[in-house]
Design brief:
- By secondary structure, this protein is of the alpha+beta class.
- The protein has two domains: 170 residues, no CATH class; 58 residues.
- Helix content is 42%, strand content 22%.
- It contains seven helices and nine strands; from the N terminus they run E-H-H-E-E-E-E-H-E-E-E-E-H-H-H-H.
- The strands form two sheets. Strands 1, 2, 5, 6, 7, 8 and 9 form a seven-stranded mixed beta sheet that branches. A two-stranded antiparallel sheet has the order 3-4.
- It is globular.
- The relative contact order is 0.10.
- The mean pLDDT is 88.
C-alpha cells in the first residue's frame, strides 16, 4: 500500500525516519473507549512517523520547554485510513498518545486532511496530555493543495525556535481551513487571532444549526417547526455574514 505522498513540507531528507508505529501502542497508552479501539482496528490501515525535526537530525532551533510544555522538536505522523469518517477523533487520539508537537496528516485515497494541537502536561502530576487548542482541516483533494504545499515549504521558514515553527504551521492550517470556506488562501495580511475567532464562531454556528435541525426533524407541532426553521435561517444568515467578512479580509 502507498503510505507516503512525497515530502509534503519539504523537510530536510536527514529528518526522514519512515518508521511504522504499531497501532497497539495507541491502544495500550489510552484511555480509549470501546469505540476508539474498534476505530483503530477497523478504520486505520497504518500509522507512520515520517519525519522528526530536532537537533539530533540537524535542525538547530531553540527549544521552548517548561513544566507544562515541550517544544523541543516537531514530528510528522501519517495516518492511512480505510474509512475517513472518524478522522477528527483519530487525530485527537494521536495528539493525546504522543506528547510531542505533531503535524498529523491523514490520508484517504487522493484526499488529505491535517491536524495540529497545542498541548500541555496534566497539572495533577499524572502523565497525561491535555489538548489546549486543536486545529483540524476538512478533507481536501490533492489538486486543491498545490498552493498550500508551496507556502508550507520548510525552506521558507525563518524563525528561531521550535515553538515558532509549530505555530507557523498552525497558522497555515487555519488559513487552509479558511480556504475551504471562502475559496481564498491568505497566509499573511490578516490577524491570525481575528481569523481564529471567526472560524470558531462558524464552527459553533454549524453545531447549533445541526442541533436545531435534529430537534425539528420529527417534530409534529407546526409552531415549533416554524420557530425552528426561523432559527436555522437566522443562524445560516450569520454564518454567511462571517464568511463574507473573511472573504473581504483577503
Amino acid at each position: 500500500m502507498k503510505t507516503y505522498v512525497g515530502n509534503i513540507f519539504n523537510f530536510p531528507a536527514v529528518c526522514c525516519v519512515a518508521q511504522r508505529i504499531n497501532k497497539a501502542l495507541f491502544v495500550e497508552n489510552g484511555p480509549l473507549t470501546m469505540g476508539d479501539r474498534r476505530t483503530f482496528k477497523e478504520d486505520i490501515s497504518e500509522i507512520n512517523c515520517s519525519y522528526v525535526l530536532d537537533d539530533n537530525h540537524g535542525i538547530m532551533l531553540a527549544p521552548c520547554t517548561d513544566s507544562e510544555h515541550d517544544y523541543s522538536c516537531l514530528a510528522q505522523i501519517d495516518v492511512i485510513l480505510k474509512n475517513p469518517g472518524k478522522s477528527t477523533r483519530i487525530a485527537e487520539l494521536c495528539h493525546r498518545a504522543i506528547p510531542y508537537p505533531l503535524i498529523v496528516v491523514l490520508h484517504a485515497g487522493e484526499k488529505r486532511c491535517f491536524s495540529m494541537a497545542e498541548k500541555r502536561f496534566s497539572r495533577d502530576g499524572k502523565a497525561q496530555v491535555v489538548l489546549e487548542r486543536t486545529v483540524s482541516t476538512p478533507w481536501l483533494a490533492e489538486t486543491q493543495l498545490t498552493r498550500f504545499y508551496a507556502e508550507a515549504d520548510f525552506a521558507k521558514f525563518c524563525k528561531n525556535s521550535f515553538r515558532d515553527l509549530y505555530f507557523y504551521y498552525m497558522n497555515l492550517l487555519e488559513a487552509l481551513t479558511c480556504f475551504t470556506i471562502t475559496g481564498k488562501l491568505q497566509i499573511s495580511g490578516i490577524d491570525p487571532e481575528f481569523r481564529r475567532m471567526r472560524l470558531e464562531e462558524i464552527h459553533q454556528l454549524e453545531l447549533e444549526i445541526a442541533a436545531v435541525k435534529s430537534r425539528i426533524k420529527n417534530e409534529s407541532q407546526l409552531s415549533i417547526m416554524v420557530e425552528g426553521n426561523i432559527r436555522v435561517k437566522q443562524l445560516e444568515q450569520r454564518r454567511q455574514e462571517i464568511i463574507q467578512i473573511l472573504s473581504e479580509e483577503v
